[in-house]
Specification:
Blueprint lengths: L8 E5 L13 E6 L6 E6 L14 E8 L2 E9 L6 H25 L1 H6 L7 E7 L7 E7 L5
Length: 148
């Protein structure tokens, strides 16, 4: 797994969200620059759609409460207007890059994880959004402790 370079991560808090809370509503929008390798994390009570570019290579996520336990529900956009060949490539790229994205979210919001340490044990589920059935799925990606 590729390691996060914290110097390449920028974090922005918006709205009523602060580094220490609240947990809900708390949405993450992670984008990046192909040119510089920089990562941009926006943490807000809503997704930062203004940060999403036309290539749709962002990772979105938010906390949800299920059965009195927090889970992290993330999503990536595999395709819609892209053909099946492009969808296959994007699927591979997201699988390869998701560990780094989850590290960036964990590190970027480390104050919250230190304030609420049980979040480190929260299960992570990622929805792969695709119009092609072979790529449309939800996967379990472990717990945040794995991405410290």
């Amino acid at each position: 797994m590729r390691r996060l370079n914290p110097d390449k991560l920028s974090v922005e808090y918006r709205g009523s969200v602060t580094p220490a809370g609240p947990i809900i509503p708390r949405c993450y929008t992670l984008t990046h620059s192909d040119l510089t390798g920089e990562l941009f994390l926006t943490i807000a009570p809503y997704f930062a759609y203004d940060q999403i570019n036309p290539t749709r290579d962002e990772v979105l996520g938010k906390w949800q409460l299920r059965d009195n336990r927090y889970i992290f529900a993330g999503s990536v956009y595999i395709n819609g207007e892209f053909g099946p060949g492009r969808a296959r490539i994007r699927n591979r790229i997201f699988i390869r890059e998701l560990p780094l994205a989850l590290q960036a979210i964990r590190y970027g919001d480390r104050v919250l994880f230190n304030t609420e340490p049980t979040l480190n044990l929260s299960p992570i589920y990622i929805y792969f959004d695709s119009s092609y059935p072979e790529f449309k799925r939800t996967e379990y990606w472990g717990i945040f402790l794995k991405y410290e």
